[in-house]
Give the backbone structure.
Amino acid sequence: MRTLVTRLRHRPRAVAVLAAFSAVGLLLAAFVAAPPSSAADSGCRVDYTVDQWSGGYTAAIKVTNLGPALTSWRLTWTYGGDQKVTSAWNATVSQSGAAVTATDAGWNGSLATGGSADFGVQGTYQSSNPTPTDFAVNGVSCGGTTPTDPGTPTSPPPTTPPSSGDCGGAVLCSGFEDQTGPTPSGAWQFAAPDCQGTGTVTVDTSVAHSGGRSMRVDGKGGYCNHAFLATTADLSSVGPLYLRMWVRHTTALPAGHVAFVSMPDSSQGGKALRIGGQNGALQWNREIDDATLPAQSPAGVAQSMPLPTGSWQCLRFMIDTSNGDLDTWLGDQQVPGLHADGVPTADIDQQWLSRTTAPRPTGLRLGWESYGGGDDTLWFDDVAVGSSPIGC
């Protein structure tokens, strides 16, 4: 916080004495009568880190509370250019003219003294994108920002949903350690939606993320080679739905369309809500109308990420079953191109927002299906589904 120094003009001694007594009285009254405040009375700090390109930008924003502990926060600022916020993560963000308001997402609302919360926005601009400087938390000015120079984005903005330990209160939590034979059994069964070919699913005791077992999928190219591991759990009452899984795969995502997560969706008459890849990057796909997220334009694909090969990767997804919002994290990084919040974003969600019915997944299938060429060998482990965020 900046320290403001008020300069007093010289006045006659008698008037000055009376004024001093009056000031002391007012201060004492204020000290006695002032109730506890939940605002950042002693200040705050905002770090605003921008990645920008022609006509667009993302900003990673960190707000640090330097005052008394907060149970919730509201950050405001004013844009000095013609920026328009199109989406946000880890906060609810609204804009009226140049004025922007961000409120906590609930789980990140409590800030101890010295505590901080990270969120981000994505937006557009036409002529200029200056860094705002008038940040305030709960109406109390932060006295400036610590900006970074804008540049060409090299990676999506980081975001860290809260960790819930291994599974927390998840409805479904499995490391496959209860599997006793070479083929899936018990709460997990082999499934081949639509048609079956030569793809296989087996219990693997030589490769695992944790423990001594994982599920191996030998996926084959061609439409009729569906091979999935399906849970017998009914997920129709879980909402919002958060999915965490660890996946390891062998071959880079191909140019053609593939899927390795398939969720039967009652809002699509049982057709699948799918997660996979196309043009070498991760994507969502809706079976009923073949819509993709992001749009498969070069600019859209650039807002997604590839799925690294040869190592275990933590993938997390959020499906809001009340309004259709989606979020996707690779490790602790949110993937901007796999984020949908109902606000149209060029090259991201043109197709996706054409359908307004919120998804309602009823089950979970992990495996492989390809709509052309494209073999892959994948392993899945430490899978969890619940109604609150689940950490890696």
In short: DSSP finds two helices and 25 strands in the chain. Confidence is low (pLDDT under 50) at residues 1-42, 145-165. The first helix runs from residue 13 to 33.
